[in-house]
Amino acid sequence: MKLRSVTLRTLCIFLPILQMDSAKSPSEVARETLKLLAARRLSPTPDNYQALYEEVSGVRAAPNFPTAQLRHILHVMPGQTPGQKRLLGQLENAVAQQDWSMLKNVLVGYANLGLSPVATPPPASVSITQLPTTLAQNLARLVSNTLPALGEDDPRVHELAAQLCAFLREPERPIATAELMLSDFSYRLSFAAEDQAAIRQGLLGLLRLVFENIAALSIDEPWLHGQAEALLAASTPPLTLRRLDDVHKRLKDVIFKQSEAKDRTVQAQTQMRELLATFIERLAQMDESSSTYNETMERCAERIGRATQLQDIMPLLEEVMAATRAMALNSHVTRSELQDLRERTEATHAEITQLRRDLDHASAQARHDPLTGALNRKGLDEAMEREIARAFRLDTPLCVALLDVDNFKAINDRLGHAAGDEALMHLVRVTREVMRPQDQLARHGGEEFVLILPNTQLADGVKAMERLQRELTKRYFLKEQERLLITFSAGVAQVEGKNGSADAIRRADEGMYLAKRSGKNRVVAA
């Protein structure tokens, strides 16, 4: 009974198949199909019945049209451009009519939107089977340019890349093969890219750990401490090749200066120790000479006291006079030597003091941006900490302004990066001339700068930045006989609390962003 009900359902499902032309009548084909099901002991499922029916009749049935699945895909496909909307309409008609040919043409046309100059579907008679030459060349170039960033850790991804590039450079490039090879390569590439990203993060973490340890162990060595702090600032993301190269060159110069000054300091300290040793030796000799002289005087005085005749006293007086002259001469020589030692000691002390200043200056260079001379991130943090402590101690207001040069990318693109660097130096130069001596400028990154404005209310900080903008409009930046107007957008925020540095800079950055959105060359209080 169960077999009969399943068979009836199967016959209803494949009723259109039974209407197909065949040498045998549909009823005969159906009877033989049921006999084969029983003979082969197969379950009477629709799939088994269809397979045996096609075997008996010798006619393969057309596949069912996946209407529901295609309508679901239709709802999630993008339809923003006119070409996409037109093709989606054609796809909807193909699904409604269950037309395989129309469906194929529409899908090929949709896939071809990004490849052809005009986003129009291909005619029904055209079938794209080969990858266009220009696209293949661009893909091969893209794959080749990707490999250097992956390293040599994964030989499989390099093997797949070589195979893909060789295929893309062949005269004939079937789209189906290209799709399969690109899929395999992108799948392997995703793992290789994740590994490289993890390696970079791990190495950066190790470097920062080393730099932090150096800084922690060099508290008594300011010259080394400055280098470690500069390296910490340089290894703070986001990293750029230009930034790393600038810091590398700057640190090489600083290390050379510090090494030279350190050597001179060690030599000066050695000379100081030698002078002190000589000084102590001379003092000991003076003490010894004085003791000998006193003993001679006591002995002569005792002998004079026992003398009864003048001729006995004369030799004693000559001995006293000789001892006195020797003592005087020795004292004079010792005094001269001590005076010379004193002068040399003072000169050596002055040299050590100057060398320490040189070391401090060399260490301070590691706190400044190598291009503009403004404070770098580390210098900014130290300056903010000092100014916040001063403002809190004196109960005075403190503001920070974050400014970003307008259209800086256009300057770089049109005149080159060297012109962009000169434009930043021009901005820093004008800022130092216009702002107060106590105002401190720091490069926050790229074309962004931070101004620390001590003893300044928020409204006064806005006015100060607007005054700087007006001065910049009067002082053109000259590059290759071309006068360029440098402008900036800025946000100003007042520091609140002892630990409000990061919050104030964040609010100033939001104000700068609003100034950009409002038309640039503006100042917004945050």
TrEMBL record:
It holds the Pfam family GGDEF. It is an enzyme of class 2 (transferase). InterPro entries: Diguanylate_Cyclase, GGDEF_dom, Nucleotide_cyclase, Rev_trsase/Diguanyl_cyclase. Its EC number is 2.7.7.65. One of its GO terms (molecular function) is diguanylate cyclase activity. CDD domains: GGDEF. It comes from the Bacteria. Residues 396-526 form the GGDEF domain. It catalyses: 2 GTP = 3',3'-c-di-GMP + 2 diphosphate. NCBIfam families: GGDEF. This is diguanylate cyclase. It comes from Alicycliphilus denitrificans (strain DSM 14773 / CIP 107495 / K601). The lineage of its organism: Bacteria, Pseudomonadati, Pseudomonadota, Betaproteobacteria, Burkholderiales.
